[in-house]
Design a protein that fits this description.
The protein is an all-alpha fold. Helices cover 75% and strands 0% of the residues. The protein has 5 helices and no strands. The longest helix has 25 residues. The chain is flat, with a radius of gyration of 16 Å.
Length: 114
């Protein structure tokens, strides 16, 4: 059995945080005309984040089984939700809050037995 400590747990969450930054960069890229310099800058930044994420993901898979590690990917939706509110000034609705609660409760249910 593989040992899972705090460092493995933090690596898992850091991997998904970096992935959320890639999504954020893509969102910023979409606000500029296709092929413009700012578009390319954010698009390349997104690719760089995906490369960093790939390294973290390989480390995570050396500790956690794929099904367990992938279940935590739902956290990316929470990060993107927070980015939408803070950076893009999108409205906070009860549906968004309900969705976040459902995501967190699903994560707890899936990962509770460990």
């Amino acid at each position: 059995m593989r040992v899972k400590g705090l460092s493995a747990y933090l690596t898992l969450h850091l991997a998904y945080f970096v992935f959320s930054l890639a999504v954020l960069s893509m969102k910023f890229a979409s606000t500029f005309p296709f092929g413009s310099v700012p578009f390319l800058k954010y698009y390349l930044l997104s690719i760089a984040f995906m490369v960093i994420y790939a390294f973290f993901w390989q480390k995570v898979l050396s500790v956690y089984p794929l099904t367990r590690a992938y279940s935590w990917k739902a956290l990316v939706f929470l990060w993107v939700f927070l980015y939408s509110i803070v950076l893009f000034r999108e409205p906070l609705t009860w549906k968004n809050i309900l969705g976040a609660v459902l995501i967190v409760s699903g994560l707890i249910m899936v990962n509770d037995h460990e």
